[in-house]
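Quick note —
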Amino acid sequence: MILLNYCSKSTLLLLVLFQFSCGKTIKTEVSATKNTTITQIKQDTLPKSVILGAHRIYDYLPLLKEKRVGIVANQTSVIYKKDNYTHLVDSLISLKVDVKKVFAPEHGFRGKADAGELVKNGIDSKTGLPIISLYGKNKKPSKKQLEGLDVVIFDIQDVGARFYTYISSLHYVMEACAENNVKVIVLDRPNPNGHIIDGPILDLKHQSFIGMHPIPVLHGMTIGEYAKMINGENWLKNNAKCDLTVIKMAYYNRNLPYVLPIKPSPNLPNNQSINLYASLCFFEGTNVSVGRGTEMQFQIYGAPFLPKTNFTFTPKPNVGSKYPKHENKVCNGYNLSNESQLQDLNLSYLLNAYNLTEDKNNFFLKNGFFSKLAGTTQLQQQIEAGLTANEIKSSWKNGLDNFKLIRNKYLIYL
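Predicted structure written out below.
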């Protein structure tokens, strides 16, 4: 397990890497350069801690010189300035970069909106910059919204799941910029589920904002690698090509655990929820709750109609879930918060809930949302037919093998 912790001592930042598997603590020194607000990471010990794309300012600052810049960002878009987290927008403005506007994805610029909630355009109170929503009806920046921009920076933490909508926002940003001759710079960040490639491949008949391309549920790529795939596989409209630069990370290895220092969205509060997210998100297409409206989102599941267990929860409106499923109703369910980290997509939770549901006609939502999440109608049909998890997973093998061959062309890291 890797835990990133930030503290100050004089002019130094100490980035502490806890490598519990080694049984000892390894300290990495981060020193502030003279006459600048940029920090450089000095590392004299192994294993080396990850240097994010956003931290490598010397690599991308020259690309912004005398350019008019837009930034796609949310609450995870931070770098280190002096001894604090500093938002990328604030840091670049302090470095005299000509930032013109901010584009906000699902959950908004500050990351507080409910899933699926309309995010409105507005003005950032701190910087006075206009904020343009990329959620709701305006998922793709318009020609007018890109007017006066030379470069758009994309810096958002992803979690490696096909239905996590930030990669769909990435697609539309790349497509709009390709159509309007605007350069895109992706500041790469780790995929906390980067060690897993699993799930059914999306059938384009079920293409939507929660699944745009023929990839599995867990794709095992960073957002920079995925951007390269979008370009390379001609997935942009009319086979357009985006002028793309990926600022890669240093010392990143997808097989090493990585704990995000900032939660990527309101309903993914910790590493356990992020690891369970892809497996539990299928429940969003059913009448089973995944803990929205509690403090254990995507770490528990249950419903009033499931048999009684030794664990119950009652969803109530909270930040990120104004109208939770089964609001104010006692849900019988299961607590996964202390389970071991998953190494693949786990279907046992879904199959368990389905098998325990007496009225199976009301298990899946009638709006077809489950098939959108799965990217295929086959998964629901297999569950209803009584197939086991192993039988279902064996049907994914050919698709996953083909995807891995395509994926290999765009990998930046081990």
